[in-house]
Amino acid sequence: AGFCFAFAGQTMMLEMQAEMKQPTEFPKTVGTVCFTLLFLYIIVGMLTYGFCGAQSPGDLIEVVPKGPLQVVVGILMTGHLIVSYTIFQ
Fold first, then answer.
1. What are the residues whose beta carbons fall under 8 Å from the beta carbon of 87, sequence distance 6 or more?
2. pTM reported for the whole predicted model
3. Which residues, other chains included, contact 70 with Cβ-Cβ below 8 Å and sequence gap of 6+?
């Protein structure tokens, strides 16, 4: 779980641990969350490489076809950034 701090969660982790009903469960929770994130990143990477091959883009949003779906993805990304910024402040 030590390398999980690379996911930029370290700015909130001490606050989250302090708010937990059972702070002693924090290492197990962080390990579970980091494993889940790693699993999801690997799945998304494999799917992207499977569909795009060596031409896989740097940003996954570039794979989304132009049109209404790309607009929806853009709105969702903007919402994600706003929520993330709010949480980290």
1. 12
2. 0.57
3. 61, 64
Q: How far is CA 81 from CA 10, 76, 85, 88, in A?
A: 17, 9, 6, 10
Q: Is residue 20 helix, strand or coil?
A: coil
**Nearest-angstrom CA–CA distance, 88 and 4:** 17
**Nearest-angstrom CA–CA distance, 74 and 36:** 24
Please classify residue 60 by burial: count the beta carbons closer than 10 Å to its beta carbon, then call 0-12 exposed, 13-18 middle and 19+ buried. Answer: middle
Predicted confidence pLDDT, tens digits, the chain (89 residues): 444 445 556 566 666 777 778 888 888 888 888 788 889 889 988 888 888 888 888 777 777 888 999 899 889 989 988 887 787 67
Q: Determine the Cα angle at 2 with ends 38 and 81, to 5°.
A: 55
Q: Cβ distance 2 to 13 under 8 Å? A: no
